[in-house]
Amino acid sequence: MNWYVLRVQSGREDRVAENLRKRIKAADLEAIVKTVLVPTETVSEIKNGKKRNYKRKIYPGYLLCEMEITDDVWFLIRETPGIGDFVGAHGRPAPMEPHEVEAVLGTMEKTSEKPKVKIQFEKGESVKVKEGPFESFDGIVDEVIPEKGIVKVIVTIFGRPTPVELEYWQVETI
After folding, report:
1. What is the model's pTM?
2. Rounded to an integer, what distance in angstroms lies between the CA atom of residue 127 and that of residue 173?
């Protein structure tokens, strides 16, 4: 079985995927269409002092399907409301490469265990330290390291610019 990409209506990926699963079950094609997947990642952010995790679509407007393409499957998918077409040249479905599938599934698995941190700071942005030993100091973002959840800020201490590493939740925009 190969993985294929389907174009769907953006914003309706979950509803279209559920509808496709129901149609596959009703047509008794579950052995041929193994998986229908909306690629998502778990994102963590702190808003108003509260940590919250939510799912974000990695590829809005697309579904992934693991299946064998037969005439029955082709027509079932093409006739499902909300599905545009297969991704591929000249309307012909092109299977995904194994390394592409592994990358997408790996991202989904990795972020479900350890959510990706959403940091909305950019280099050069003015911020205020709201927690820690440099509380109430103003500074400028020098570097953002999303993998570690760290923001490097240049803070002026005794008239001299000093780089300080802070957790992303310890600073806020001015």
Report:
1. 0.70
2. 4
Please compute the mean of the pLDDT values over residues 60-78 and round it to a whole number.
92
Q: Phi first, then psi: give them for residue 144, nearest 5 degrees.
A: -120, 130
Q: Please give the Cα distance from 142 to 156 (Å, whole number).
A: 13
Q: Using the 8-state DSSP alphabet, how is residue 151 labeled?
A: E
The neighbour count for residue 139, using CB atoms within 10 Å, is 25
Least confident stretch, 40-49, 68-77, 78-87, 125-134: 40-49
DSSP E strand stretches across the chain: 2-8, 33-37, 40-47, 50-57, 62-67, 83-86, 116-117, 126-129, 138-145, 150-157, 160-167, 171-173
Cα dist from 136 to 15, 102, 122, 128, 156, whole Å: 46, 45, 20, 6, 12
Pick the CATH number of 126-173 from 2.30.30.30, 3.20.20.70, 2.60.120.1440, 3.60.140.10: 2.30.30.30
The closest of 53, 40, 45, 55 to 107, measured between CA atoms, is 40
Domain extents in the chain: 2-117, 126-173
